[in-house]
């Protein structure tokens, strides 16, 4: 168990160092690094999964900074597409784990979907609705 924790910590730290090296030129990499740690804590991701998630997150962030959403509906569509892309990086067991199902309303209030929490934190920082002139 301790070995597993140390190994995942090494992966996150290694990824953080590689992302930090790129972060000078890409602010999206910094944002992705900041939020992917949360996902890794809950899912025990391997290096390839972290790399895949980081690539998808940076790609999503870059696309949104180049072309911001012009409406709430467009923002929701982009988040849904991003969620689908992120799920492609996870194995079936992890996909089941992030798709939290609630038995009743009280249970829903007590816990949030891991992936939804990531999407809210990352998406709020990345997606900026374009102001109309």
From TrEMBL:
<keyword id="KW-0732">Signal</keyword>
<protein>
    <recommendedName>
        <fullName>Secreted protein</fullName>
    </recommendedName>
</protein>
<feature type="signal peptide">
    <location>
        <begin position="1"/>
        <end position="23"/>
    </location>
</feature>
